[in-house]
Amino acid sequence: MKAVMIKSTNYSPFICFNQDGNLLIEGKSIPKDSNSIFLPLFEFASQIRADKVVFDINLEYFNTATTKRLLKLINIIDNNSNVLEFIVKWHHVKDDTYSIELANIFEECQQKAKFQYIMHNSFKELYKLKIQKQLS
């Protein structure tokens, strides 16, 4: 199984899924064809063999299709018997109640996933995080 790295566009997020269990999806996710982005991620999630998976979800904006695919992706990882510990780091901007409520719903649907809510004061902070990760 190879790592998955997808560069961001104006419509799709930056994605970095590593075999060591460190997963990242961030940016905007409003693709016309969400299957083209998420199908490789579903395959990766079903095959990952890492005791601990940490999934950073750092999305500024995402559409309904992405919401459905994210839930499915989290479900696949949560049900993967090779993953013993699963942490979802849900990044959100202060006062974004919709994003927090959605993450709460996602969390309620899982058995082993533990969600950590990471608040940022502005989108500018989110982008700083992205730039730092790409440089490291």
What does it look like?
The protein has 136 residues and is of the alpha/beta class. The protein has one domain (4-135): Transcription Regulator spoIIAA (2-Layer Sandwich). Helices cover 40% and strands 32% of the residues. It is built from four helices and six strands. It has a six-stranded mixed β-sheet. A hairpin with a 7-residue loop joins strand 1 and strand 2. Helix 1 (34-47) packs parallel to helix 2 (64-79). The longest helix is centred in the middle third of the chain and has 16 residues, at 64-79. The radius of gyration is 14 Å and the shape is globular. The chain starts with a strand and ends with a helix. The model has no long low-confidence stretch (mean pLDDT 90).
